Amino acid sequence: MAKLETTLYGSLDRWIDKIEAGILHGSVSASLEDGSDYCSADGRVRCSVRVFERYSMMGGNRVSLNVTLFQDADGVIRCSAITSGGSQATFVKLNTIGEESFLDCFREIVEKS
After folding, report:
1. What would the pLDDT profile of 16-42 be if each residue is shown by its tens digit?
2. Phi and psi at residue 58, in whole multiples of 5°?
3. Which residues neighbour 51 within 8 Å (Cβ) at sequence distance 6 or greater?
4. Rg, C-alpha atoms of the chain
5. pTM for this one?
6. CATH of the domain at 78
7. Burial of 103 per CB tally in 10 Å (0-12, 13-18, 19+)
8. Given phi > 0 = left and psi -120 to 50 = alpha, else beta, which region is 109?
9. Reduced to 3 states, what is the DSSP secondary structure of residue 112?
């Protein structure tokens, strides 16, 4: 498992679009598995979750990337991105290169902006 937490600024909708496009165009095997959006009654608090998958050549399996964006009343977006599924071992985590690589793809998207 690999994790990145960061703070983003600007439009939550723009960030969702940018992240989805960046992940899906960053790998031929990437897919958007599902998503969920929540907005408070007054529209000041929003939370968006996206779950992506892609094939890891290094691990010979699929890895997932879960992205949560939370925007509270101050307008600042808190972002958490967590990968999983890249290990081939039964009881310990071995060969997590695919997870790290998927997270690096996400890191590149948020750091370029």
Report:
1. 999 999 999 998 999 999 999 999 999
2. -65, -40
3. 32, 33, 34, 35, 64, 65, 66, 67
4. 15
5. 0.89
6. 3.30.310.80
7. buried
8. alpha
9. helix
